[in-house]
Amino acid sequence: MAETTAPPQAESAVQIVYTERPQDEEPESFHLRILSSVLGSQEAAKDALLYSYKTAASGFSAKLTPQQVDEISKQPGVLQVVPSRTLQLHSGHGKLH
Which pLDDT tens digit goes with each residue over 13-61? Predict the structure, then answer.
């Protein structure tokens, strides 16, 4: 008997989603509304949301699959979606002054 396996699910990765600044809504509510439109529920959106940016930039970070990134990029109010990266700061061989 042949064994069937489900297709592997795409791995989620942390993405930074830059949005327009909401006018008549709290930023976190706006971010959750965008996420829930892609993830299917408010609960799934709350689970995926890692941080809401409200001061210097408007947006949020969330764990998303590549397909979810594609879908959320098309949502009204979304300006850009980029992978989150951690950068290491280096100092040269010389002393810092």
Answer: 999 999 999 999 999 999 999 999 999 999 999 999 999 998 888 999 9
Which DSSP category does 54 fall into? -
Cα dihedral sign, 38-59-43-85: positive
Neighbours of 35 (CB within 10 A): 25
Decide: pTM greater than 0.85.
no
CA distance 12 to 68: 9
Task: Return phi, psi of residue 24, to 5°.
Answer: -120, 30
What is the widest separation between alpha-carbon atoms in the chain? Answer: 72
